Amino acid sequence: MKRWTAAAVTTALILGGIGASGAAYAQDSSTPVDVSADNQETINSKCITIFTGNVEILQNRSRLRAQKVTVYSARKAGTTADGANACGAAQRMEAEGGVYMVSDTQTARGDRAVYTFDNNIAIVTGDVVLVKGKDVARGDKLTVNTKTNDARLESNSASKSQRRVRAVFYQDDKKTDAPAAPAQPAAPR
Fold this sequence. Notes:
CATH superfamily: Lipopolysaccharide (LPS) transport protein A like domain
CATH topology: lipopolysaccharide transport protein A fold
Shape: elongated
Number of helices: 2
Radius of gyration: 21 Å
Mean pLDDT: 77
Order of helices and strands: HHEEEEEEEEEE
Helix content: under 10%
CATH class: Mainly Beta
Number of domains: 1
Oligomer: single chain
Distance between the termini: 76 Å
Low-confidence stretches: 1-27
């Protein structure tokens, strides 16, 4: 599970969803990943690890919480010395049930999140809410490329409620969009 990093998923989802950059931090796999859950099941024959019950994954200052997190790893050719299947790097991670992600300044939540390592795509679905400072964005599906931080927030137009994507952005108090005052002509000498 060396390639599997909680920060890659949580930070990229949060930063990418609001539009900030943070790919260097999100791709930091050198720091340890701390996973706690009520239960862990490893199915080596299928190269799957399942964490259930109040799952919390921490790395650096990023955190992912969900009721269930499943990690699917690649199957290596051959078997180990004891005859078991050999599993390699993680290929996909799925988080389900009240998915909540936090970084230093941002949060994101949804019903389900899926991260695919080979194409660096993270998808969060179900009542997605992204918060950065006072800025808030809502939708039904968020797709983020964690390598480029390109993001797409969509609504579920097939639902009866016809809910639309909604975002509220606050202007930075330190910046002003007012045009600069015209320069005063120089006084004659």
